[in-house]
Amino acid sequence: MSLVTPLSPDHDADTKQLAEFFNETLGFCPNSVLTMQHRPAISKAFINLNKAVMANEGRATSALKRMIAWVSSNATGCRYCQAHAIRAAERYGAEQEQLDNIWEYRTHSSFSEGERAALDFSLAASQVPNAVDDEIKQRLYKYWNEGEIVEMLGVISLFGYLNRWNDSMGTPIEDGAVESGEQYLGKNGWNKGKHL
C-alpha cells in the first residue's frame, strides 16, 4: 500500500545530483527520497541532513551508525528502514558476525561494550516514552565523548523521521534492500510487510 507514488529519479535535477550519495550508501536512490520529491525542498533538505548526520567526525564508524539506525528502526517496527540500515551497515564494512547476529548485539561476542552502549542508547532513545536515563548516560560517557554522542543521536533522530515517513507512506521497498533484509534479518521474521 503506497500512500504516494515515488517520482522518477530524473524529476528534480538538484535532488538527483544530491541523491548520488545513496549510490554509495545503498547502491540505489531510495524510494523514500523519490517520494519526497513531490516537494523538492524536502528531498534536498533531507539529503543534506542525512549527509551531515552520517559524516564521521569521531570514533563512531559508518558501520556502527548504520547499526544504530537498525536498532532504532527495529524499535519502531519500520521494516523498510530495517532493511536499508542493515544493507548500509554491510556496505560500510560491518563485520560479518555482527551482521549475522545483530538481533543478539547485547550478548554476542562480536560486539564491544562501547558498541553495546551505543546500541542500547539507540533502543532507549527510540522508544515512546523515551527511556534514556542516567544509566544510559553513564555507559555512553564510559566509551564516547559528547561530540560522538551528538552524532549517534543525530542518527537516531534521522531514523525517527524516516521510520514515520516510510511506515506512513508504505514506501515500496527496493530489491537490494529486500535482499539484505532477507539475508540478515529474515531468520528472525523480517519481511517486506506493507512495503510492496
From TrEMBL:
UniProt-recorded Gene Ontology molecular function terms: peroxiredoxin activity
Entry-linked InterPro entries: AhpD-like, CMD-like
Domain Carboxymuconolactone decarboxylase-like: 40-120
Annotated source species: Aequorivita lipolytica
Full protein name: Carboxymuconolactone decarboxylase family protein
Short name of any one Pfam family annotated for the protein: CMD
